Amino acid sequence: MSKRAVDAVFQALFLLSDVRFLLRETAPGHDLDEGQKERAAKTLEKVKRQVAILEEELVR
Amino acid sequence: MKCAIDIESRDVEEMYINIDPIQAGGRLTVDAMKAAIAYGDGYSVCDNCLSPFRLDYIKKPPIAQFHADLAAWLNMDTARVVPGARRGFQAVASTYVEKGDPVIVTALAHYTEFVAVEEAGGIPREIPKDAKNHITPDAAAEKIEAVIREFSKTPPLLFIDHVDYQFGNVHDVAGIIKVAHQYDIPVLVNGAYSVGIMPVDGKALGADFVVGSGHKSMAAPAPSGLLATTNEHAQRVFRTTQAKGDVTGRTFGIKEVEMMGCTLMGVTVVGMMASFPHIQERVKHWDTEVAHSQTVVDALLSIEGTKVLSDNPRQHTLTRIDTRESFDTVAQQHKKRGYFLSSELKKRGITGVIPGSTRVWKYNTFGLTEKQIRHVGESFVEIARENGLNIV
Questions:
Q1: Per the CB < 8 Å rule, is A28 touching B16?
Q2: φ, ψ for residue A30, nearest 5 deg
Q3: Which DSSP string do the residues of B267-312 spell out, in sequence order?
Q4: Positive or negative: CA dihedral B139, B145, B149, B151
């Protein structure tokens, strides 16, 4: 049982939901202002960390 | 992109500004999206359902507390979640209406109120709207008198839509309830277009029942809604089952008859709960939503020949517009006929106007950002100008 992997899946999906919401807020052009770009960058960085955890737990 | 066999992923909200009249208030909050991911399984909220085994008693996730919070937020005594506003109408009509009873609705009532009355065996009678598309206390009094004369009995129930679905007008619900109560008629307030998007105080209105729609105005998955009432009515509408099996002798504890035992499970109730803090906050910014609505109305009215059929100045984000003397004149000459408007809007990233509509149509600006509101207003004007209409 890998609770760490399960948590990472949820965390990644939740973070991607934040990105999805950003796409909604900025539709139709998706022209992000500086604050939104910063938010997106931070969120995507966190997604990468969760994916790394999943690789550690499930693949390596 | 498909999310399953033969099911396309829905990306309307991500790709477009959606001004569909019924979809605006039901768009999920980000927390509801997350809750939907975690609680998609059928009986997911029932992991910790303990005796006495009823949905509104579940403490983890905090569904019991949510019920109490919903009632307090609406300034009512008790609330239940239901699978859509219509199920709230059904529960109340089924409790109060006997076969052959007259029930007062209005000329602007949603069809599901009629259906709820019909199912209970009642006979709907409509309060007419006035020239300004309002239901007034005077008209309510006249209709109640007329119905009592016709049926030789007092109607057991009156339905009034806080905000009607046809014009998005806000009605004098408190005044109408005051009139109904003079005849001892309990009143159900249909808050499908108010609960969750604008402030609603059930006690201040004098409501006996407040019904809200989760998927229309509370940023929740469908089908979801709520029925709130006062202590006076709670025992009756939320009565528990007395049924007993003649063979097995089984009884069914505290299951409520009108709720069919338990109501919302899984993603619907958890979605409502996840959005609840957001909707408590967003109703405080109703003035901004109304100002946004006005911005778009003003843009449309700058197109010569356009009329707004809803109240103006606007008091709501749902608006009915008449473009028979503007966009429809273009449609008559255009190769795409009436489809030109929705097509032009789509090119600009806007959707939600029924394709082909250029005569009388509705839209809803609820929940759009300032930038999106500007884009919608400017797009209407640009489309008008490009098609030879005068901007005044």
A1: yes
A2: 55, 40
A3: HHHHHHHHHHHHHHHHGGGHHHHHHHHHHHHHHHHTBTT-EE-S-S
A4: positive
- Per CB-CB distance under 8 Å, the chain B contacts of A27 are 13-17, 349, 372
Q: Identify whether the C-beta of residue A51 lies closer than 8 Å to the C-beta of residue A12.
A: yes
Residue (of B17, B12, B31, B19) closest to B281 by Cα position: B31
**Closest approach of chain A CAs to the CA of B44, in angstroms?**
16
| Model pTM above 0.90 | yes
Decide if B30 and A18 are in contact by the 8 Å CB cutoff: yes
For A6, nearest residue in chain B (alpha carbons): B38
Looking at chain B, which residue has its C-alpha nearest residue A14? B34
Torsion angle of the four alpha carbons B293, B72, B157, B185, in this order, in degrees rounded to the nearest 10: -110
Taking contacts as CB-CB distances below 8 angstroms, the residues of chain B near A29 are 349
Please state the three-class secondary structure of B76-134 as a single string: CCEEEEECCHHHHHHHHHHHHCCCCCEEEEECCCCHHHHHHHHHCCCEEEEECCCCCCC
Chain A 1-40, residues with CB within 8 Å of chain B CB atoms: 10, 13-14, 17-18, 20-21, 23-25, 27-29
Directed axis angle between helix B63-73 and helix B267-282, to 10°?
A: 40
Closest Cα of chain B to A23: distance in Å?
A: 5
A21/B372 CB distance under 8 A: no
CB contact under 8 A, A21 and B38: no
Check if the beta carbon of residue B88 is closer than 8 Å to that of residue B113: no
Selected for mutation to probe chain B from A17, A26, A32, A33 (highest B CB count within 10 Å) is: A17
Instruction: Assess whether the previous peptide bond of B186 is cis (omega < 30° from 0).
Output: no
Burial (0-12, 13-18, 19+ Cβ within 10 Å), B50? exposed
Taking an 8 Å cut-off on Cβ atoms, the answer to whether B14 and A20 are in contact is yes
Q: pLDDT digit of tens for each residue in chain B (392 aa)?
A: 999 999 999 999 999 999 999 999 999 999 999 999 999 999 999 999 999 999 999 999 999 999 999 999 999 999 999 999 999 999 999 999 999 999 999 999 999 999 999 999 999 999 999 999 999 999 999 999 999 999 999 999 999 999 999 999 999 999 999 999 999 999 999 999 999 999 999 999 999 999 999 999 999 999 999 999 999 999 999 999 999 999 999 999 899 999 999 999 999 999 999 999 999 999 999 999 999 999 999 999 999 999 999 999 999 999 999 999 999 999 999 999 999 999 999 999 999 999 999 999 999 999 999 999 999 999 999 999 999 999 99
